Structures are given as C-alpha cells and as structure tokens.
Amino acid sequence: MSLLEAIILGIIQGATEFLPISSDGHLVLVPAIFGLAQPDLVLIGLVHAGTLLAIVAYFARDLWAIGRAVLDGLVKRRPMATAESRLGWYMVLGSVPAAIIGLGLKDFFERQFQSPTVAAAGLLVTAAFLVSGERLLRGTKTLDRLTAVDTLIIGTVQVLALLPGVSRSGTTIPAGLWRGLDRPTAARFSFLVGLPAIAGAGLLSILDIFSAQGSMPASYYVAAFAAAALTGYLCITFLLAWVKNHSLYIFAAYCAVFGTLYLLYTFLT
C-alpha cells in the first residue's frame, strides 16, 4: 500500500464514521471497486483511533460536564437529578443492546464484512432509514426531555450498524427523529450515544496493533491516523451545522445511488 492509499483510507474512515453514509461500508466497497490493497490490522487500528480522538476532542466539554454530573449524582445519591447526569446514564443504556448482540453474534457480523454485496445492500438500508426519519420529523423534543424509552429504541436501532453498509448515525439520527427529537438534537445525541460503541471498536482495533506486524513505513501509519482524526473532526462540525437548516435527504440519495450502482455492477459482471 502506498502513502496516498493510506491517507485515502484515513480520510474515508474519518469522513464516513460520522457522516450518515457508513464507514464500514466504504472501507469494504472502496478497496473492492478501485482495487486498493486491503489495510493491515495496524492501519485499521490507527484510523479507528483517529476517529475516536476526533469525537472525544469535539465533545470534550460535554463529556467533562456529563462526567462531573454523573459523579456528583452518585455522591448525592440522586443519579438522575440533572439533565447532564441523565444523559450520561442514557449514553450507557443506549450502548447495551449493541454490546450484547455484538458480542453474542461476533462471528456472524465479522463474516458479513467479507461481502461487498452485503455492504452495498446495507447502504440501501441506511437510505431507507434516513428517508423515514425525515418523513416522521416532528422536531419538538430536546435532550432535557429525552427518556429511557427513547434511548432504548435508539440504542436498539444502533445494533443494525454492526452490519457493513448500515450507518450508525444513519440509523440513530432517524430513530431520534421518530421519537420526536428535533434534527440538531437527534444528531448530537447520535454522536453521544454512539461514543461508547466508537470507543469500544477503537480500543479493540488498537489492541489488534499489538498482535500484528505493520507492513508499511511508520510515516504511512502516522499520516493515516492524522487524516482520520482531522477529517473526522471536520465532518462532525459539518454535520452538526448542516442539520440545523438542511434535511438528510442528500445523504439518503448518496447511499441509495452508491449501493444500487454497486449491486448493478456485480449483477452485470
């Protein structure tokens, strides 16, 4: 793999991890389409670490406030007393379904990543979720009115993102819209509720680094990590600004066109 390919994969991971178009789907499909070398475990671990750094850096103030509120609530034996402390517990609650099902069916989900066709079909699922979210948008509820039921529904939908092509944010944002969150709130909560899953995937990928040998110069890995971190941060900023005044239909159209074109390509060749 060349330096340019390593940087491209870092950019793909950084952009598609946070935009509702599926990072895993692109990491499966793009190398298959363009004949790029498959990334080794070290590179995969580092680009995941880059996106983890991006989301932690962007939400650092929120995470600090949430962490303080949770600890304060535990000390005062009033764990759900404030909006910030409730949000902290909801982040944990929303991660439970994906953790249970992901660990229980780990081998099944890993096998799906060997099939670009599954990833292309997953993009169509993402497109359907995005359209349904916009169709059901009511936009009346903010984070301080979020409930445990809302969180469990959003967290359960997040399970689908264990499949390649199905975007985590592309399913959890629409699920938030179904539950009456306004679009900016749904997007923000999507990132927060997904942070434990992103952190878990990132840490597991980083652990793979210690059991694998790199096949490229160290500078290639550094470049891929930096590309993923910078692109990820910029894409979080972009998406949270975009949803204030724009719909999600453009992302739905992208997923639908990309997935359909790949399926047609495989059918005709």
Features:
globular, 269 residues, mainly alpha, single chain, 77% helix
Structure description:
With 269 residues, the protein is mostly helical. The chain has one domain. Helix content is 77%, strand content 0%. Helix 3 packs antiparallel against helix 10 and helix 4 crosses helix 5. The model has no long low-confidence stretch (mean pLDDT 88).
Task: Write the SSE topology.
Blueprint: H1 3-18, H2 23-34, H3 41-58, H4 60-75, H5 83-104, H6 106-112, H7 116-135, H8 148-157, H9 168-178, H10 183-209, H11 218-245, H12 249-268
Helix pairs in contact: 1-2, 1-3, 1-11, 2-7, 3-10, 3-11, 4-5, 5-8, 5-10, 7-9, 7-12, 8-9, 9-10, 10-11
Offer a quick outline of the entry.
The protein is an all-alpha fold and 269 residues long. It has twelve helices and no strands.
Reported for the largest beta sheet, the result is: none
Mean model confidence by pLDDT:
88
Rounded Rg = 18 Å
Low-confidence stretches are none
How far apart the termini lie comes to 26 Å
- Secondary structural class: mainly alpha
Strand content: under 5%
Helical proportion, percent range: over 70%
Total number of beta strands: 0
Q: What overall form do the CA principal axes indicate?
A: globular
State the helix count: 12
Order of helices and strands: HHHHHHHHHHHH
Q: Number of domains in the coordinates?
A: 1
